[in-house]
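Hi team,

Filling in the usual template for the complex we talked about on Friday. All components are listed, including any nucleic acid strands or ligand strings, so the model treats them as one assembly.

SUBMITTER: L.P.
PURPOSE: interface mapping
COMPONENTS: two
RESIDUES: 586
SEQUENCES:
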Amino acid sequence: MNGLLVAIKSELFVALRTFASKLIVAAPALVAAAQLMLVKLTEAGQQARDTLLGESGFEQSVANNAYGFFVDGLITGLTMLGLLLVAQSAYSFSYDSDIGSIRHILIRRVSRGSVLTAKLIHLHLLALLSVLLLLITSYAMSGMLWEYGAIVEDGFELISEQEIHEEIWLGLRLALVPLPAAIAFGLLISVSSQSATQAVTAALGITLAIDIFKGLLGDMSNYLYASFQPSLIDQSYLQSVSRIVRGYSDILIDDSVLQLNMWVPFPALALFFAASLWIVQRRKI
Amino acid sequence: MPALSVTGLKKNYGSFTVLEGVNLQVKKGSIHGLVGLNGSGKTTTIECILGLQSFNSGNITALGQSPKQLHRTKGKLVAIFDSPSLHPNLTVRQCLQHALLLCDEPTRSAQEVEDLLGVSRFRNFKIKNLSLGNKRRASIAQALLGDPEFVVLDEPFNGLDAEGVDDVLELISVLNRDYGTTFLLSSHQLPYLEQICSHIAILHQGKITHSDTISNLLGSTHTKLQIKTPNSEAASKLLEDIPGVELHGIDSEGYLNISVADSDSIAINKTLVESQIPVAELILKRASLATLFREITSEGD
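RESULT (copied from the run log):
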């Protein structure tokens, strides 16, 4: 059997029996669901208060469109997923190295490069499952708590459902494109670190530092893959989509930024992974 | 072709030289012990052999593969380390199932090796909840799943109780005898190595100073004799003229200590008696690996 296939099977075997992988798959969806529930509860309280005071809700039909909440759920879930993936990828190789389990697989069946590639693939599978679960949960929860529909104002359809779908799909694609680079970044930190604790701390620390300082970098930040991830200081296009699908029309979209969003993460992924392979061939295990 | 061939292995940590040209040949079907003082470079040598760290110069082939290509042996070479090297959150059975994934053609089932190593009772215990000894048993168990040709063990007796040591010694002996498995053992437990190994290599000051069969190594050392006689002075005078005998004086308990090259204690006894020197006690102190090791490691100091 091919070494890479053995390594992937080995990764999946451990992942199915450990908590961390389940957390990555389920946590973003659960947090998004909790957020939507909380928003609905707050909104219900607000509506009750308005009814008692005889006030009507502000642009209720627009604000209550489920698509806006669906996108909010996605933003929350993807923010969390981005951080979890960076942490888990930083943890993966360094932890196996800490406990020594990686030695067995290297000596017995698989080359260092294949082990690292298997980890990259495994983390992508986790990310894919997590995104699917997040999409399903957010969509279902938003549909249960609000109603999906076109943006209509004074009987005039501002944005059709077809256009909303297209915007959400574009926003989602642009938000997902940086995730592979984030995983590869975590792996690079993982193979460069002396211990799992050091790796996770460094990876999360650098990710949060980029998030904080990207505003200071101006246009230069558009060349950082992390600028396009949904994050705590969110500048992703999905943030704009959240406003678009609520009927706000003051969104200025710079096409060159969208192009950078689409293409910058790929060389970053290649660079990080190539550096990881170079380091892993040389480091002591 | 030997199972392992190491020639001119050199390794530096910065300006500190750990290995200064290690040469080691491990024959197929042998049990080769690697001994050395703390910090002598045993673990470094093993890690270089297993491709876990780089080395400055030299040539290593194990089962015909270079250290970086050991995975091409497809599980015919396995290693068991000082630490258990198992996932702490998996159970013993899960660890064995995981190891089965790495075997092309597993020759033993998880159940078989559990019984062989006496870990059946703990099969559903997570590794993190096992004692060190049982972790080591589980570690050995997972190494034996794929019928390896060559097993490298780094400090295999650490953390094992007397029963555990006996089990491991028995297991090594059975695998070597019945399956022709080659072993390279690095350990400080010289009596265990003396009991089990066919060959010993002594690593001292960055080099293999001695590497041979146990019998050849021990045969080259002097056997010590302690003689108690009422006429120690006469005995000393008589024995000092015999070729190959070295006198070490009379100790506080009145024993005359000598060493002889060929361990012929009967001839010594006969000579004394024929010269009218009565012998009250004659104690033969056979050469041991520990004695030899102490002699060798103290030579350079």
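MY TAKE: Residues 162-179 of chain B form the longest helix (18 residues). The longest strand of chain B covers residues 16-26.

Thanks, L.
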